[in-house]
Amino acid sequence: MKKRSALVLLVVMAVIIPMVMLTSCTQKAATTTPDTTTPAKQLTFVMVPKGVHPYYIPCYQGFVDAGAKYGIKVEEAVPQKFEVPLQVQVIEDLIAQKVDGIAISANDDAGLVPVIAEATKAGIKVITFDAPAPSSAALCYIGTDNKSAGSAAAKQMAELMGNKGNLIILQGGLAASNLNLRTQGFKETMAQVAPDIKILDVVDEQGDLSVTQNKTEAIIQAYPKLNAIFAVSAEIAGANNAVKDAVAKGSLKQGQIILGGFDDVKDTLAGVTDGSIAFCLVQKTYKMGWLSVENLLAATQGKTLQNIDTGMVIVTKANVTTYMDDMKKEFAGATTGGN
Question: DSSP alpha helices (H): ranges in 176-284?
Fold first, then answer.
């Protein structure tokens, strides 16, 4: 009787133990986070900037470097001008090509809603970087908190102006949501910290350096008591050219107009270095590109994405030679915003 009981126990254990092991393995597989470093097939991600502009060079470099790390084919599709219809056409072409992911710097919010919805319906993962499209189906935004950046710029400019005087804002396109947020943050903060500074106008310079220079020449003529110009986009170097020309002609005194702007394009940094541009706010563009790849990859593996504020730094003559190294050190900790 004892031998028979022992035999039954052995049979039961032989059946139960494999079942328990199988159940354990199944539960572990169900809860494992998808591996973002090993896509099942080579994916194709495409970066779509607003248009042709040197600002996007480090964005795409980060995109390329992250693609190399994760084994992803990356491309750039660039509208020839900062125009919504051209950007829509570029995205429609990518939908036809059946790419796997698109990172867009949005020229406009409402104008991109239909085409982003079309891409999403086609199974393409779409995110925005640099400039958001919050009304669209884009999965997340990776870039600067633009309203806060505008606020920081206002504080810097107010200090340089001694909290009084007249100022013009230059903006590269009046429909871009990121630039509108910067202008809003700048105006609101300036009204709070320096109510004696009068913002005379917001001038659309279309994101073009030559247009900026021409319009600044007209501004100098129209506002003889102007004290400062701030560009919420990357074209302050065009204004600097106009101011330098006016100084050379004797119609302006050296330092009469204080200049500040956004982004570390080559000519802007040259102006900061020689002191003709007081400061610029530098966005972490390389990080935007890198994180765009990581988050598109996470999206293809079913992760939920979150908006990421990539941050910014104010660059002056004091830190113009060191800020890039500091940003690269900070970037070493950058990771996906998915979960």
Answer: 177-193, 209-222, 236-249, 266-274
End-to-end CA distance of the chain: 58
Domain ranges of the chain: 44-144+285-310+327-331, 146-283
CB burial of 280-298 (b: ≥16 within 10 Å; e: otherwise) equals: bbbbbbbbbbbbbbbbbbb
Secondary structure class of 202 (helix, strand, coil): strand
User: Which architecture does CATH list for 44-144+285-310+327-331?
Assistant: 3-Layer(aba) Sandwich (3.40)
Are the C-beta atoms of residues 183 and 219 closer than 8 Å to each other? no
Category of 208 on φ-ψ map: left (φ > 0), alpha (ψ -120 to 50) or beta: beta
Mention the CATH class of domain 146-283. alpha beta
Query: Residue 38: its pLDDT value, please?
Result: 55
Averaged confidence pLDDT in the chain: 88
DSSP 110: G
pLDDT of residue 305: 97
